[in-house]
Structures are given as C-alpha cells and as structure tokens.
Design brief:
By secondary structure, the chain is an alpha+beta fold. The protein has 13 helices and 17 strands. It comes from Streptomyces cirratus.
Length: about 475
Amino acid sequence: MTPILFVYAKGGPPLEYALPRIAAHAAVHVLALAPLPRVSEQVWLPQCASVTTAPPGEGVELVDLICSHARRVGAAAVLTLSEYAVVAVAHASLRLGLRGAGERVAGARDKRLMRRIWRDCGLPVPGFTEVHAPEDIARAFETLRRPLLLKAAWSAGSTAHLTVWNEQQAEEAWKTGRSVMEASSAQGYAELHAADEGVSDFLLEEIVTGQASDWFDGAGWGDYVSVEGIVADGRYHPLCITGRLPTVAPFTERASLAPAALPEASQRRIEEVSRAAVDALGLDTCATHTEIKLGAGGAMWLIETAARFGGVMTTRQVETVFGLDMIGMLVRQLLGRDVAYPERMLTEGEGAAGSLVVLAVDPEGRPWRELPAWDFEAVDWGALIAPGSRVELVREHSLAPGSPVPPYEEAGGANSMAALCFLSAGSGPQLLADCGRILAALPKALTTTSPERSATSADPSTPGSTA
C-alpha cells in the first residue's frame, strides 16, 4: 500500500478509532512526538507499518524532523489529527511538495490572525484586542464592551480562558493564563511549531450573548455549533453540523452531540457563514472544524476555525449518525484519490451520538462538594441511560480506575477532564435526556472503591459499555 506518515501529538480522536481508518487506505508510519497511549495499544499497533518516537523540537527543527522521516518511509502524504502539530505538518508538506493545509495555515491556528482576517473580510466576529503588553489591556477596556474574555491565542479545549471585568483582573488573569499555558506545554498540550508564542500570546475579546432557544427545536442545547468539513485542493466541503450542551464557565465544552436539532433553513444559514469563514482563510487541503455562536434574532458570530477535525469523538459521532468516515475521506484526498463528497452539507442523520466530558461540576456548573475516585465500572450506567442507548469509556482520554477526579479549574478548561464517554441513542432527544441524567447522577454514582477494587474492577484493555 501507499505509505503515509502520521504525526502523533496530544489531542485529536483516540488512536484506536483513528488508525484503522487511516490504515484502510495507506500503510501507516507513525512519528510520535508524545508518549503513545499504551492502554489501547493492542488495537492501534497492528495497524502500523512502523512506529518511531522522537522529541519534537520546534520551528524549523520540527519541520526538518517530519520531512526527514517522511522521506525515509517514502510517504506520499503527511497527516496529523492534533491541533498542536497542524502548523508543523503543513510546513513540512509544503517543503515536500505534498498536499496539506498550505502556507496560510497559521490563520486557522493563531486566533489573533484568524480574527483579523475575518474582520477585514467583513465577517461577524466579537470585538477584540491583541495583548502584548499592559497598555494593550488598558486599550481593550477603553474600546470594548465588558466583561471581556482573556483567551490564549494558540490554546485548545478552552485552556487559559478567563472572564475579566476590569484592568486589574485582566492583568492578574494574564499572569494566570501564561502559567496555565506553561503547565499545559509541559504536559504536551501546546503548540509545537512555535512553543514560545504558544505560551505568551493572548487576546481580549467581547463576550457575545448567545440565545439557543431562538435556534433549536427543544430545550437543553448550548448556544453554539460546529460545522465539520474538509477543504480539498482549495475547495471547501461542509459535511454536517454538530451541537453542544451548555458550556461550563467560562466556556469549557461539556458534550458534543450529533445531529444538532436545527431546522434545515437554519442549518443552511450556518453552512454559508462557515463557507465564508473557511474560504477567507485560504486553506489548501485539510480537515476543518468551524465553531459559530448563535444569538438572538438569527445573529451569528464566528468563534474559530481549526485546520483539523473536531476533538474528542467528533469523527466517530459523524460516522455513526451521518455515515461519513471523515478520516478516511481526508486520507484519500491527501493521496490524490477520488473522494465522494455530498453535493450539499448533510442536515439529517440516523440516530444520535455524543461525546460527554466528565468534569467535577454539576449540571449548573457548580463544583462537586466531594471528589471521588474515577471508576467507570462502579457506575450503574443502565439506570442512567434509556433502553437502547449505549455508553462506552474512551480509554485514551480517561483517568485510570481509582484515580481521584481532579477539581474543575476555569483557567484549565479541558485539562480538568477526568474521563470521556461516548454515547449513542436512537434519537437526539433521547441522547439529550441520557446526558442530563448522567450529569445529575455524578458524582454520587461513583462509589468509593477499595484499593483492591481500583486495581481489578476495570480492565483498561476492554472498553466498558452498557446496552
């Protein structure tokens, strides 16, 4: 089979889901820039033609590493599913003369550049100011409507996002944000191509008000959506929309759900805003994940576009509900093969699927009073989900059984995650209800386990599921 180099870094869909879909179309050579998930090794390792681990370096050094390894294995394409390696892989693909996100990839990574591009094109974005020095903070409060959101320009998963009401709070938040980004970087959750900028670059932006009830059929939905898609040789193909549960303060994602309960006319409006946003970025060939805030009276604001697929289990949700293997489609596109894209974005699917993040907060966002040990097998899932629904533990994104659930920290965002669960149900309303019951039941549903049970209750090589 044709060789492809897969550059692994933190983030993205789990390898036990992703690698079989890559290997169906190419011989997969893995270049690992972060420790590989051993908990699922028996699933993903047989899919690999070779596996090489290497310290990532940064900038030109990292691009050199990727190019050298791609030439060594004769790769016809280079692919990553991690937010943190997107820029480096794009630059390596350019140097190698291979398909990739292209020379303008930074516009889909640096939130400051992204917003400048959209603003200059007349697209709807919240007011913002880049933060390089304390005087930038003062200017932001002179020109923008408070409260403001301090946001790390290169972050993912709502890391280093803090709400501030005045200059003093903003200056303290800026210090906190840099500390959080430094800690995230030490754990591998930071930009690899521009490590220094990834830690120090920030912006302040206005917090626009969403109004989910003006958009969705039924209650319980968050006030923003994502359009999942692929850019193929410069042509954007929006594929479907995924919805959300309401976020945890400030804006940490709690669950991604498909399909989104939106009338088709609303989905088509969102599709066109997404098309304008992606087209403005000038990407070549890559996945896209475009987040859009939904306001009252049909108002929309662009949050961000990433040159990769949505995180957690978004790709599996789309395959389950819409029948699209987006990873396989992108691999074929990168290899120059035919890909069957829908003529228009799909607005209806079959059944429902979601990724539920376990955070130590209740349904209203209040911190848990007690922090029990995490143990998937200790929960009576059958009592929490409807007949016909299923829940599985995503092992690569979950703590080991017996680990204490970490306290939720606003600045840490998704870094506070204890576990990730994948749910499927017969319908969207059923899935929403399942998520609601689970969130209401935790943490009481987690029993305090003995050391003996913690060591034996859940075999990490077998994903838990309940029918």
